[in-house]
UniProtKB/TrEMBL annotation:
The lineage of its organism: Bacteria, Bacillati, Cyanobacteriota, Cyanophyceae, Coleofasciculales. Gene3D superfamilies: Periplasmic binding protein-like II. It is found in: Periplasm. Keywords: Periplasm, Signal, Transport. This is Extracellular solute-binding protein. GO terms for molecular function: polyamine binding. Signal peptide: none annotated. Its main location: periplasm. It comes from Limnofasciculus baicalensis BBK-W-15.
Length: 395
């Protein structure tokens, strides 16, 4: 799905509904700030059909999850400022103005702990939704947290997963045809033929994590000092690497300067058929998982649609539940570069062949069972990662 088609679709939808809103002062507003390209615009048209009341939909894309997190910080500050009225507030166009807080915002599961701790978001009351009950436990557990942002099966629901992906190994088919083998697992990155041929993510959690996985351990080991030979394995992998990058790792692979790249499934899938010499696999021993979530900004109910709070809340619940319905989940997965979490609770026989046969988009259950989300870390463990990472990179 091209960025241009997404923006054009969203713009057309927003303009059309804005115009209808001019004729109906009672029309509700449903505003969503989302990660660019994470929702096919066709899905918004389908959602509009299920609404039984006039609603002005505003789906506004941002290019980076970091920008969306900053938006949450801005809205929190806005709410706090409104609690301290000043003389300027009574003067039109000079006071706080109308900086509408979105009903929902995209946030990566990695950011969830900090957002809860900083009180940037509020719990979602969606436990009664049919779609929530249909999700596999894996997806429910990553968003159930206590007030410290820690995983807690008895905690509240702080996000609604709507798409997910994996960390994968991408490689040049032409180069490996010459070698006579193909990568299948993390351990292949240590093979001597790949010396100075690999792009690694500039992410200590990912690189140290895949090394732990190669050693038969978990991404979420809680004491690195107790892992024998970890530093030795990391140094060996470091000597294999030609570069570290989290956003430019595909370019050298496309150009043939590297033969292998560790990256994220969405980036690889977005290449489509444009680069035929590149293939990718999800490692057999399992990989790290990530999810994009719908979260609700703190203060939403008080700041949006004054006097219509109940109706506004029902709309955000309808959108979340709609995105989890089988038909919508399949459409999202077919049209985008990441699958819906709902697919993992649907029998493969009931999925379109294009989805069921795509092991990069939807890995085998045997691989999924060995894969993990990156759990929140203690301050002590974060320090361990930083020290080890800096030591390896200086070597």
């Amino acid at each position: 799905m091209k960025r241009r088609s997404f923006i054009t679709g969203v713009s057309a939808l927003a303009v059309g509904q804005l115009m209808s809103g001019c004729n109906n002062s009672q029309e509700l507003s449903f505003k969503v700030k989302l990660l660019q390209d994470s929702i096919p615009f066709q899905l918004l048209g389908e959602f509009r059909k299920v609404l039984k009341q006039p609603v002005k939909l505003k789906f506004e894309p941002e290019s980076q999850l970091r920008d969306l997190y900053k938006r949450l910080e801005t809205w929190k500050k806005q709410v706090e400022e409104k609690k301290k009225p000043t003389l300027w507030d009574s003067i039109p166009f000079i006071g706080h103005g109308n900086r509408e807080i979105a009903s929902l915002v995209t946030l990566g599961d990695y950011w969830l702990e900090a957002a809860i701790q900083q009180k940037l978001i509020q719990p979602l009351k969606i436990e009664e939704l049919g779609g929530w009950k249909e999700l596999s436990p894996r997806w429910r557990e990553i968003v159930m947290r206590n007030e410290k942002g820690e995983l807690d099966k008895s905690g509240e629901i702080w996000g609604a997963p709507y798409r997910w992906g994996t960390t994968v190994i991408a490689y040049r088919r032409d180069k490996f045809e010459e070698l006579g083998w193909k990568p299948k697992d993390w351990s292949d990155l240590w093979r001597t033929e790949l010396r100075d041929r690999i792009s690694l993510l500039d992410q200590p959690r990912e690189v140290i994590g895949l090394t732990l996985k190669k050693m038969g351990l978990s991404y979420n080991e809680t004491d690195l000092s107790q892992v024998a030979n970890l530093k030795k394995e990391l140094l060996a992998l470091h000597r294999q690497a030609k570069l570290y990058s989290s956003d430019r790792y595909l370019e050298p692979l496309v150009l043939g300067d590297t033969w292998v790249a560790v990256g994220w499934s969405t980036d690889i899938l977005s290449l489509g058929e444009s680069v035929r010499d590149i293939e990718a696999i999800v490692p057999e021993s399992g990989t790290s998982l990530w999810a994009d979530l719908w979260v609700q900004p703190a203060g939403f109910a008080k700041e949006s649609n004054p006097g219509k709070t109940t109706d506004s809340i029902s709309i955000y619940k309808k959108w979340i539940d709609f995105s989890w319905q089988k038909e919508a989940a399949i459409s999202m997965s077919l049209l985008g570069d990441a699958p819906s979490p709902r697919l993992t609770s649907i029998e493969q026989a009931n999925l379109p062949k294009k989805l069921a046969d795509n092991n990069l988009l939807l890995p085998d259950n045997s691989v999924m069972d060995k894969s993990e989300f990156l759990s929140p870390m203690s301050a002590k463990l974060i320090k361990e990662y930083q020290v080890l990472w800096e030591e390896i990179r200086r070597s």
